[in-house]
TrEMBL record:
Its cofactor is Mn(2+); Fe(2+); Zn(2+); Co(2+). Pathway: Carbohydrate degradation. This is ribulose-phosphate 3-epimerase. CDD domains: RPE (cd00429). GO terms for molecular function: D-ribulose-phosphate 3-epimerase activity; metal ion binding. InterPro entries: Aldolase_TIM (IPR013785), Ribul_P_3_epim-like (IPR000056), RibuloseP-bd_barrel (IPR011060). The lineage of its organism: Eukaryota, Metazoa, Chordata, Craniata, Vertebrata. It holds the Pfam family Ribul_P_3_epim. Homodimer.
Amino acid sequence: MHMMVSKPEQWVKPMAVAGANQYTFHLEATENPGALIKDIRENGMKVGLAIKPGTSVEYLAPWANQIDMALVMTVEPGFGGQKFMEDMMPKVHWLRTQFPSLDIEVDGGVGPDTVHKCAEPFGRSLSSRTLEVRNFSKIWN
């Protein structure tokens, strides 16, 4: 679950009860990331931590060894159809070099013309609400 909410703490238990196996929250939405990470784990879920485009990637670093996945937003959250922000890719590169085993994802504006920028050497997973791919060989080659 990627929770784009202002108080992510209040949704941990309901999402666990609903069967979520991972809970991703925005670092900017909580005052106590450590306590929230602990609560998510105690409720039997993996932890994902997202950062918005305006947030420094170094702000995520203290939590990187306590999470299962880092999510770099490549659009401003909450509005579909935005253009992919290629200038977010250095954040992905920095995370990959600093935390080589961390699962890193990008979210937002990913489409047939931008997917290669995400997949090249950095992230292992891609997330997109609007990407529809019928023939992967045209994108990956």
